[in-house]
Amino acid sequence: MRIALIGYGKMGHMIEQIALSRGHEIVCRIDVDNQEDFDGEAFRTADVAIEFTAPSVAWGNVQRCFDAGVKVVSGSTGWMADHAEEVRSRCANGGCTLFWSSNFSVGVYIFGAVNRTLARIMNRFPEYDVRMEEVHHVHKLDHPSGTALTLEGQIVAEVDRLEAVPIESIRRGEVPGIHSITWDSEADQITITHDAHSRKGFALGAVLAAEYAATHKGLLTMDDLFQF
Fold this sequence. Notes:
It is built from eight helices and ten strands. The chain is α/β, with parallel strands linked by helices. It has a six-stranded parallel sheet, with helices on both faces. The protein has a four-stranded mixed sheet with strand order 7-6-8-9, covered by helices on one side. Helix 6 links the parallel strand 6 (129-136) and strand 7. The two termini are 27 Å apart. The mean pLDDT is 95.
């Protein structure tokens, strides 16, 4: 598979390493200093582009992939809510393909399945209040994190008494990502936590998503890749 990388920071380098180890080819690397490569022939030969950038430029990057007829995997957060309707329209009616997730970690996806199940149970126990804490590196621009918002959405969908979940966002050091959800009552407390040791899990998930997107069309998510 031919992959274009959009965003060549720490995540981009790790995605490249994993993609090469799985036998894929990197046909171009686009970063802030070579935006003209979006118009190059190498970019248009890509089977899939993998995009990890900033919220302010992510939607523009995705549009350039759509316009070039290149399928795209995006792990950038903080932009999808504002453009979801147009994304759905272009994927449904324009023949475009986007695989989007707020977090590509396989472990986080498993954590989300546990979160949904626990929330479904807690719908029957109103004596428990819920709160969330998310911790990331100081370079992360959006807060709460996209993953925290996804987890919150899962909880709200399952618990009738809730419209939102209090989320505390902490930025320190080079923390890849920690998400903790606590259900607290007078009697006891239940906490579930996902703690990423490195960015490797996110990078591997992004490459797995690209492999899936290469043979599928439309608006794709981790629910399509892992069905449990």
